[in-house]
Amino acid sequence: MWKPGVQQFSTQIRVQHRQETKVNGAPDISYVDADIPLGLCNWKGRGGSESVTAGTVVVADTAELTMWYRPDITEKTRMLLHDDVKLPYEVTNVENVEMRNQFMIVKVKRVVNG
Description:
Blueprint: E1 11-23, E2 26-53, E3 56-68, E4 77-81, E5 88-96, E6 103-113
Antiparallel strand pairs: 1-2, 1-4, 2-3, 3-6, 4-5, 5-6
């Protein structure tokens, strides 16, 4: 059985779910807190990449979270690092380790204009 190679889950995150409503046929996206909004995880930054899009520098910062399993976290979820609105990360991949519903590995990405 897989066990995470971390001593503790000590990084605080806020879990928010995406809500889409149609406004004049176009989706209006907003985020609301999950039923259990705060969680703890092991946060590992994976670095970022820099590119130029339409003459603007864009930096994509990625990270990998290891945490207790939560069925409400999907690819339509957003994580706020340290419960800070200025540090939103979009979930790109969710892995239920060994399908045991015990631990999960979540990959996240944040895109910032430079």
